[in-house]
Amino acid sequence: MFFLKSKAEKELDGILAELKANLENNYKSTAQAARVKLGERTEELYKAGKLTEKAYKKYKDLFEEYSLSMRNYHH
Predict the structure, then answer these.
(1) Model's pTM, two decimal places?
(2) Which residue of 12, 38, 51, 61 lies most exposed, with the fewest beta carbons within 10 A?
(3) Quick check: is 2 in a domain?
(4) Within a 10 A sphere around the Cβ of 73, how many other Cβ atoms?
(5) 75 domain residue, yes or no
(6) Whether the predicted pLDDT of 45 surpasses 50
(7) 17 lies in some domain
């Protein structure tokens, strides 16, 4: 079965791409801002009914992984 991502998932993937690019370029404060945005949008989209339970768990887990790996990033 061919699976198309929802508009909400595409939005979150865009935020993830931004976060990864900032990490690769060592833009720590910008990466932190993207991480926060990922967490906030994941919650907003889920509460609005735009993410499935499975998609919500995926992005929530990614947010938590990045939060853990970036916990010592400061300006």
Answers:
(1) 0.89
(2) 61
(3) no
(4) 14
(5) no
(6) yes
(7) yes
